[in-house]
């Protein structure tokens, strides 16, 4: 049975924030930004809300019909994003990352730093689809929901000859994305923290096109 996917709207905001908060509680990068389980439990959701608001305004969020998984996508033009705004898509100026920090957790410099570091490695020379985040609720991981969500967009990328990009936040996710045709670049080592892998996917053509379920 295939994964039933729809495009999320503003009415789905709270559901998406809860989903992402649950899905990333044990993620290495989330653990670096919000060290300590109790601290993360009470604060992490604010960053997920900020990300959700950006993508609802400027991108697209795909969600499974049962609300167990979602993917946040932005279409990035050939001249962006740079390191002077929040992934280059929300119209933020040089203070964009600082504003998110103030809204999420003013005393936590890592909230701002993670945005600046990932923006600094983001490719800017070609237009592409950017998978900002993908989350699956605990207990449903490993069922192919994430692959189904990603695959629907990658199939379109292949048809349109468009590249895709993401940052993998763990070894496990990096291996998954490699199976979907992404190639890992030089990892970004977070200060005193885990690594992230920038991953690029060229569009597929011919008999190898398409994504396995």
Which structural traits does this protein have?
213 residues; alpha+beta; 20% strand; 8-stranded mixed sheet
Give a short summary of the structure.
With 213 residues, this protein is α+β, with helices and mostly antiparallel strands. 40% of the residues lie in helices and 20% in strands.
N-to-C SSE string, H for helix and E for strand:
EHHHEEHHEHEHEEE
Largest sheet: 8 strands, mixed
Distance between the termini: 10 Å
Instruction: Round the Cα radius of gyration to an integer and report it.
Output: 16 Å
Based on helices, strands and strand pairing, what is the structural class?
A: alpha+beta
- DSSP strand content: 15-25%
Tally of individual helices? 7
Overall outline: globular
Helix content: 40-55%
Which blocks of ≥5 consecutive residues have pLDDT under 50?
82-93
In total, the number of strands is 8
Arithmetic mean of pLDDT: 89
